[in-house]
Amino acid sequence: MARQSASSYLSDKHNGRVGVVVGNGISRKSFDLNDIRAAGVVMFGCNALYRDIDADYICAFDTEMLRELSMEYSGAVIAEPVQEIAELGIMQPWWLEYDGTKVPNSGAMALWCALFSGCNPVYLLGFDGNPVTSAGSNNNIYVGSKNYDIVYHDPAAILTARKGDFELVMCSLGPRALSVTQVGTERYDCPSISGELFMSMLFRPDRPISV
Asked: Of the spans 3-7, 28-32, 106-110, which averages the highest pLDDT?
């Protein structure tokens, strides 16, 4: 695992390339990530995504998740360990506030990295934004596996927090955020397209998205 600082490593590195930011929500199951990868996009992911696909970048904060990545993954990891950030007192736009406590959001950080790297357009995939059950169980493909404890949140509260965090990221990067489109969901304040249209665009010979 090669740990990198987002701001120093990614600045305009992928200007004009298509970026796909992959979350770990349940809706991701309907997509073949290998097909998306084969289209030549720059893929940004979060935490345990490496278990299913060799993305270009994995964003992570959690100490135990970073330990897992260091042992199991050899690719590029954009890492800002929670303890180090707490000691420095730095609050980046990818931190959300929940129950009065600020916590990092690796999905929002991955979006920031994609935009900061110059990717245009950028597609959000697998960010469901809220728990999948009325009881509030965590909506995540990896829930219950290593480093993914089953936790419960108020669905409305966590959706509000995550929306605010993603919108703060987009506001912080101004015009670059105009390139963001969500795929298969309508959780955030940016355009949305269906998964079918997204996949057809990726592989259309005259596609309007460049790689």
From this structure: 28-32
Higher pLDDT, 156 or 63: 63
With contact defined as beta carbons under 8 Å apart, do 28 and 141 qualify? yes
Give the Cβ contact number of residue 176 at 10 Å: 18
Buried b (16+ CB within 10 A) or exposed e, 81-113: beeebeeeeeebbbbbebeeeeebbbbbbbbbb
Written as one letter, the residue type at 208 is P
DSSP letter string over the chain? -EEE-HHHHHTTTTTT--EEEE--SGGGGGS-HHHHHHTT-EEEEEGGGGGT---SEEEE--HHHHHHHHHH--SEEEE--HHHHHHHT---TTEEEETTEEEE-HHHHHHHHHHHTT-SSEEEES---S-SSTT-B---TTTTSTT----B--HHHHHHHHHHHHHHHHHHTGGGGGGEEEES---SSS-EE-HHHHHHHHT-TT-SS--
Assessment of whether the complete model's pTM goes beyond 0.90: no
φ and ψ of 56, to 5 deg: -70, -40
**Residues 154, 136 contacting (CB under 8 angstroms):** yes
